[in-house]
Design a protein that fits this description.
Bound molecules: uridine-5'-diphosphate-glucuronic acid
Shape: elongated
Strand order of the largest sheet: 3-2-1-4-5-6
CATH superfamily of the largest domain: NAD(P)-binding Rossmann-like Domain
Number of strands: 14
Strand content: 5-15%
Largest sheet: 6 strands, parallel
CATH architecture of the largest domain: 3-Layer(aba) Sandwich
Distance between the termini: 67 Å
Number of helices: 19
Structural class: alpha/beta
Radius of gyration: 24 Å
Amino acid sequence: MRIVVIGSGYVGLVSGACFADFGHEVICVDKDADKIAKLKAGAIPIYEPGLDALVASNAEAGRLTFATELAAQVADADVVFLAVGTPSRRGDGHADLTYVYQAAKEVGDCANDGLVLATKSTVPVGTGDEVERIVRKARPDLAFDVVSNPEFLREGSAIEDFKRPDRVVIGADSQRARDLMTEVYRPLYLNHSPLMFTDRRTSELIKYAANAFLAVKITYINEMADLCEQVGANVQEVARGIGLDNRIGSKFLHAGPGYGGSCFPKDTLALIKTAQDYNAPTRIVETVAAVNEQRKRAMGRKVIAACGGSVRDKTIAMLGLTFKPNTDDMREAPSIAIATALQDAGAHVRGFDPEGMEQARPVLPGVELCDNAYQCITGADALVIVTEWNEFRALDLKRAHKLLKSPVVVDLRNIYRPDEMARLGFTYTSVGRSSRKD
Ligand code: UGA
């Protein structure tokens, strides 16, 4: 099959490379000429484990190419995927659909009969209807289908998620489109990965409902962690104890500094807005979004408390700056709110991240960025684990103890064991694992 993917950001690039690896002929199109030139030269603009090798092997095999001009590519495509960005509209939280609609118009202008236009971008319910209207307006006689095919990829394990998905959701209103989409996902279909067919609006909502549910789950365990600290319980055991119930499930029950990233914060807000627009408010999600925002700032206060109530003129070392490990993405990262809270309280903040330094620089003004973890903690008054990169799990703790000015560790991801940290002489604080004894 010939597949065109519009938008070579995170979703577009991963999807394009994986479709090519399925054996399809894929052209990734992006208006950013600089990005396309780099991709043609083999440079990957994002950090995602395994993506460089996947792009290289498929490009070499001639199945994956890159282009800036849409018109030439769309004419004989079987399926065109929209994978452009849908950022939060400044000021209100609705998803900004400018890029989606622009791309739809351009596709409409040059498509041939039989085209399936599939939306991978995360878009609010009803966007597919509008895309269809735009294409229809451009080409009243064109025979085409508009499909919703949301992605459920996690940054850091996107290729694995794409190739071994829990499910593929396809919202299509015609049998022809369903058949074509089955062909696109043929290797998964043959592997018995669940392909779920539904109508387009339902498919659009599934994406938001899934992300919001996961945000609820994280926020729930975060609140349980706060309660654990007050009552002398252990949140990891609570998570295990409830997670063993199949109805609850053990995943996404890791307490931490609050969720971040390019998806949960943006998508929960967009869902809240849509629900309000339709007069069916999602009060649980509204609360979750507010609680999560407060939590990120509260983590700053937690560090201050661990430092004896003041960080004025103290040096605080933050290890892990990205919103989660195995990515260089700083969007909505808890490290930003934590650094700001500490700086506002008079601290000098240092930071180190294995992959996110370049992205961190512009969003962490005033934070001294270090070359490695040990340099970061040398002479610091406290070490704060903000993101659970594996290299921090393997930190030489004896060395860290010697390098710190005072042996204070605030572990916001629960990567160390309280008993071991006490044995090594640290003053150790983690999340939801109180050592309180009544
Ligand atoms: C999320 C979803 O997991 C994907 O299924 C979805 O496709 C994607 O959004 C998207 O809409 O594009 P992602 O944002 O890459 O993926 O990252 P997650 O692994 O879901 O983590 C999100 C945030 O939640 C991170 O800040 C992470 O640290 C936090 N988290 C996650 C926790 O605090 N606790 C957990 O138990 C799990």
